[in-house]
Write a structure and sequence with these properties.
5-stranded mixed sheet; about 400 residues; alpha+beta; single chain; 12 helices
Length: about 400
């Protein structure tokens, strides 16, 4: 019951948010048509000459105004040529009625200003239209009603500028809100990709080691129980370490150690019957560089254990003042075809290394087998920044 009420409340909030995100519509400018009641009274009272022409003009003005303001709130329709044609017709009709009738009909100028502000909204084009419009409206109103009509001129200018400013500001705010929501979705997606990639690397290596050691236990148990128990203890240790690493990966604070990964690679390769050879030279590396190279060692050793069928695997690390190079080479069967090909998990690492300013290549070794080569700057940025798609 509680969950049902929470779902209803959440749905109501989403609907309310959806309504608020839509912003103003053409309906918000329709009440200003009440300013035309003075012109209607002028017609009904019999004070206007040619009332039938005036009535048709009033009907045409209202129709054009409604069409323009409703199109002004749809971005595609607002930029369409038809909208500008309708706005031009509205302007011509406004000046014709103001010149022909004067008095209350001059109030159509502020309504024209509302329509212009809703369509143009911003930029130099707004001033190029607004200034001549206000000047022309001022000349007509002064000619028809003298200096008493200054308020209409001022109202026309204000209606153009205030409408354009408010609608442009509202549009900007909604765009910023949409951008913020998109950035939040992107951040969540990047974190999801980071976690899935780390989980793949962690579990792929760990489960490979557990499978290899379990096979060793199966072979040793009938003839050497003590050695088999040692392997079981190693399996337990690997499992506990994997739990710790998964917890750290979930919180996002896992820092890889290259020395630790090299030791684990030695152990995994040895358990799989592959002779490990580790060569390391050069100065100490930055922690971020070591962490990233540790991921490369882990994935490469996992591929060698799973796919290579090799008897020997050489891990060589050569560091310099500017660049560091890691090479993992085995003498196995080389890259296989199909979805389980060696190094398929290296795609995400390749993008992560590229984001850190380095390169990662994998393929057949010069003398047969498979080789992974990673080059990085001696000091790299955080490998989790700019998460690529794995």
């Amino acid at each position: 019951m509680t969950n049902g009420w929470r779902g209803r409340i959440g749905g109501a909030r989403e609907r309310a948010r959806g309504r608020s995100d839509r912003g103003p519509t053409g309906l918000s400018l329709l009440p200003w048509l009440l300013m035309g009641l003075g012109a209607l009274s002028h017609l009904v009272g019999g004070e206007a000459p040619n009332p039938w022409i005036g009535g048709l003009g009033l009907l045409a003005f209202n129709s054009l105004y409604i069409a323009v303001v409703f199109r002004a709130f749809h971005p595609c329709a607002r930029e369409a040529p038809l909208t500008w044609v309708l706005l031009g017709a509205l302007g011509a009709l406004t000046f014709a009625l103001a010149i022909g009738y004067g008095r209350e009909w001059l109030l159509f100028f502020p309504l024209l200003g509302l329509a212009v502000g809703a369509v143009v909204r911003r930029g130099r084009l707004l001033m190029r239209i607004a200034v001549p419009l206000v000047v022309a409206a001022g000349l007509v109103t002064f000619w028809r009603d003298g200096w008493d009509s200054f308020g209409i001129v001022y109202g026309t200018f204000i209606s153009v500028m205030v409408t354009a400013t408010i609608l442009a500001l509202d549009e900007t705010v909604r765009q910023l809100r949409a951008t913020r929501e998109e950035l939040a979705r992107t951040a969540v997606e990047k974190e999801r990709l980071r976690f899935s990639r780390d989980l793949h690397d962690l579990l792929g290596h760990t489960l490979s080691v557990i499978v290899v050691k379990s096979e060793v236990v199966r072979r040793l148990a009938p003839r050497d129980l003590d050695a088999a128990l040692d392997q079981v203890r190693d399996i337990e240790s690997v499992g506990r370490q994997a739990l710790t690493e998964i917890r750290e990966a979930v919180t996002g604070y896992r820092e890889g150690s290259l020395a630790t990964e090299l030791d684990r690679a030695r152990d995994a390769l040895t358990s799989a019957g592959i002779e490990p050879v580790v060569r390391r030279s050069g100065p100490l590396l930055a922690p971020q560089t070591e962490a990233l190279l540790g991921w490369v060692v882990r994935e490469s050793a996992t591929n060698a254990v799973r796919h290579s069928g090799a008897s020997r695997c050489v891990i060589a690390l050569d560091g310099g003042p500017d660049r560091v190079r890691l090479t993992v080479t085995d003498d196995g069967r080389g890259p296989a075809a199909g979805p389980g090909e060696p190094g398929s998990g290296l795609r995400g690492l390749r993008e992560r290394v590229a984001a850190a300013g380095g390169t990662l290549d994998s393929g057949p070794a010069p003398r047969g087998g498979f080789q992974v080569t990673a080059e990085l700057p001696a000091e790299t940025s955080d490998p989790h920044q700019g998460e690529p798609t794995p």
